[in-house]
């Protein structure tokens, strides 16, 4: 049953990161539009988040899934062989996975970050922070009962 618990934890972390990360990146894009004078209503914001969940989240989620399938087993090794707290290790693993994934995407896409809301340091920090929260979700759901 451990494999089911671990798979469910990984899936929960991926889904949370894909949805929250996409919504955050949309927020950064909307803020940039507002900064140049575009009128943004709450309805516009909600519509754009929903559209990004439909269009961007599946692709972003696939990349997140790959990053987490590497990061969380690595975190498991750290948990097993170090005295560090489990929650801290998995939060750091999720944060690092997203930070590395975003850094690796830019050169692949000819120097342009394809996640528009992560083109600033603040946007990248927000994405990495959500990755850290995703790691906490993984740690909580995968914990032995």
Main features:
single chain; 145 residues; mainly alpha; 5 helices; 81% helix
Structural notes for this entry:
The chain is an all-alpha fold. The protein has one domain (2-142). The chain is 81% helix and 0% strand. It has five helices and no strands. It has helices at residues 2-35, 42-55, 57-81, 86-108, 121-142. The longest helix has 34 residues, at 2-35. The model has no long low-confidence stretch (mean pLDDT 96).
Beta-strand share of residues: under 5%
Provide mean pLDDT, rounded.
96
Structural class call reads mainly alpha
Task: Give the termini separation.
Answer: 11 Å
Helix content: over 70%
- The gross shape turns out to be elongated
Largest sheet, in brief, is:
none
What's this model, at a glance?
By secondary structure, the protein is an all-alpha fold. Helices cover 81% and strands 0% of the residues.
How is the secondary structure organized here?
Layout: H1 2-35, H2 42-55, H3 57-81, H4 86-108, H5 121-142
Helix pairs in contact: 1-2, 1-3, 1-5, 3-4, 4-5
């Amino acid at each position: 049953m451990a494999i089911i618990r671990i798979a469910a934890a990984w899936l929960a972390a991926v889904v949370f990161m894909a949805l929250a990360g996409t919504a955050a990146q949309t927020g950064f894009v909307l803020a940039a539009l507002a900064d140049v004078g575009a009128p943004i209503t709450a309805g516009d914001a909600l519509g754009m988040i929903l559209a990004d969940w439909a269009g961007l989240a599946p692709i972003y989620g696939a990349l997140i899934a790959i990053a987490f399938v590497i990061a969380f087993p690595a975190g498991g090794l750290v948990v097993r062989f170090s005295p560090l707290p489990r929650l801290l290790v998995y939060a750091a693993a999720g944060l690092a996975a997203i930070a590395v994934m975003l850094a690796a995407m830019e050169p692949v896409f000819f120097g342009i970050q394809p996640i528009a809301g992560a083109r600033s340091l603040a946007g990248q920090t927000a994405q990495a922070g959500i990755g850290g929260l995703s790691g906490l979700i993984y740690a909580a759901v995968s914990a032995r009962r």
